[in-house]
Specification:
This protein is α/β, with parallel strands linked by helices. It folds into 2 domains: about 240 residues, TIM Barrel (Alpha-Beta Barrel); about 90 residues, Sulfite Reductase Hemoprotein, domain 1 (2-Layer Sandwich), CATH 3.30.413.10. It is about 40% helix and about 20% strand. It is built from 11 helices and 15 strands. The protein has an 8-stranded parallel beta sheet. Strand 3, helix 1 and strand 4 form a beta-alpha-beta unit. Helix 6 packs parallel to helix 7 and helix 7 crosses helix 8. The two termini are about 35 Å apart. The model has no long low-confidence stretch (mean pLDDT about 95).
C-alpha cells in the first residue's frame, strides 16, 4: 500500500475527516426524513454497527425542519443532502446540520452558492462538493466524463476558496468503476482537500459489494481517500458492514472480528461451509477485533489456525482448537462449533 495522500483535516461534528485521521465510515438514511421517529430508529441501528457519519435527504422545507428533532435523538454527526434549492441548505444549517452535501450538477448559480458558503463559514460547517455522474450538466461531446467531473468540482472549489472558505470535502462518484477511479486519481493531484470515496448506485449485493470493494479498495490501496460510503440497494446497516470489511481487508481499520475460513475442497473431511456460516453468524454479536480461523485440512489449516487469535483445524471426526498460536485441545466433530465459540467468548469478554 502506498503512503496515504496528505489531506487537510475537516471536522464534521465530533469526527475528523482527513489529516491522517482514521478513514471514517458513512451511510445515508433510507427513511423519509420528515418521518422523524423512523429516521432516528434507523440512525440508531447504524450507530450500533459502527456508522460514524450519517447523511439525510432534504428534498423540501419540512425535511429541513425535521433535522433539529432528529439531532436530539442521535449521537453521530448529521449531514444534509441538498439538491436544486440552495435555500434548503440555509434552513438545514439553522436546524443544526453538522455538514452539507451540495451537488454542483444542479446548484449552479454562484450567488446562491455564496449565500450558502457565507452561512456555513459563520457556523464552521463543512461542505462536500458532491459530483455524481448521473446529475452532470450537459457538456460538449469532445469533453471526457472524467475531466468534466474533475473540472466541475474544481470550479466549485475555486468559488468557495474565493470566499476564504476551506472546510471542504470532495466526492466524484460514478457507477462505472474505471471512471470513478480515474476521477479520484486526477483530483487527488490537484487539491489537498479530503476525499469522500464511493461507487454510486452500486446495486444489490453481492455485485454491488464487489463493485464497491474493487473501486474503493483500489483507491485506498493507493493512499487516496479519507471517508467512504458503500452505496447499496439494501438496508443501510449492510453498507456499513461492507465498508468495514473493505477497510479491514487493507488493514486500515480494526472493527469487530475477522473470519478466516478455507473454501473447502476434496481434502476436507468435515462440513467446513456449514461450520463457517454458524461461526460467522455468531460473530455478528462480537465487537472485539478478533481473528478467527475455521480451517478444513492439513495443508493450510494448522498454519492459519495458529496465526489467528482463536481457530479450529478440522479433520475427520476430530479437530484441534488453537488460541494465540497454541493448541488447547482436540474435540469431537459434534463439538466443533460449541468448542470454538466458547474460546471466542473467553477472548471477547
Amino acid at each position: 500500500m502506498k503512503n496515504r495522500r496528505f489531506s487537510i483535516p475537516v471536522r464534521i461534528g465530533k469526527v475528523i475527516v482527513g489529516g491522517g485521521a482514521p478513514i471514517s465510515v458513512q451511510s445515508m438514511t433510507k427513511t423519509d426524513t420528515r418521518n422523524v421517529s423512523a429516521t432516528i430508529r434507523q440512525i440508531k441501528k447504524l450507530e450500533s454497527c459502527g456508522c460514524e457519519i450519517i447523511r439525510v435527504a432534504v428534498p423540501d422545507s419540512e425535511a429541513a425542519e425535521a433535522i433539529s428533532r432528529i439531532k436530539k435523538g442521535v449521537s453521530i454527526p448529521l449531514i444534509a443532502d441538498i439538491h436544486f434549492d440552495y435555500r434548503l441548505a440555509l434552513q438545514a444549517m439553522k436546524r443544526g446540520a453538522d455538514g452539507l452535501r451540495l451537488n454542483p450538477g444542479n446548484i449552479r448559480d454562484p450567488e446562491q452558492i455564496k449565500k450558502v458558503v457565507k452561512a456555513a463559514k459563520e457556523r464552521q460547517i463543512p461542505i462536500r462538493i458532491g459530483v455524481n455522474f448521473g446529475s452532470l450538466p450537459a457538456r460538449k461531446k469532445t469533453v471526457t466524463t472524467v475531466s468534466y467531473m474533475v473540472n466541475l468540482a474544481m470550479e466549485q472549489v475555486r468559488l468557495l476558496e474565493s470566499m476564504d472558505f476551506n472546510f471542504i470535502k470532495i466526492g466524484l462518484k460514478a457507477f462505472d468503476v474505471p471512471t470513478t477511479i480515474a476521477a479520484y486519481r486526477s483530483i487527488a493531484r490537484k487539491t489537498q482537500y479530503p476525499l469522500h470515496l464511493g461507487i454510486t448506485e452500486a446495486g444489490l449485493p453481492p455485485a454491488g459489494i464487489i463493485r464497491s470493494a474493487v473501486g474503493i479498495g483500489i483507491l485506498l490501496n493507493e493512499g487516496i481517500g479519507d471517508t467512504i460510503r458503500v452505496s447499496l440497494t439494501t438496508p443501510p446497516e449492510e453498507e456499513v458492514c461492507a465498508a468495514y470489511e473493505i477497510l479491514k481487508s487493507l488493514d486500515l481499520r480494526r472493527h469487530g472480528p475477522v473470519l478466516v475460513s478455507c473454501p473447502s475442497c476434496g481434502r476436507t473431511e468435515a462440513d467446513i461451509i456449514g461450520l463457517a456460516r454458524q461461526v460467522d453468524k455468531y460473530l455478528e454479536k462480537v465487537d472485539k477485533p478478533l481473528k478467527v480461523a475455521v480451517m478444513g485440512c492439513i495443508v493450510n489449516g494448522p498454519g492459519e489456525a495458529r496465526d489467528a487469535d482463536v481457530g479450529i483445524a478440522c479433520g475427520k471426526g476430530r479437530g484441534a482448537i488453537f488460541r494465540k498460536g497454541r493448541v488447547l485441545r482436540s474435540v469431537d466433530e459434534a463439538d466443533f462449533y460449541q468448542a470454538l465459540v466458547g474460546e471466542i467468548r473467553r477472548l471477547a469478554n
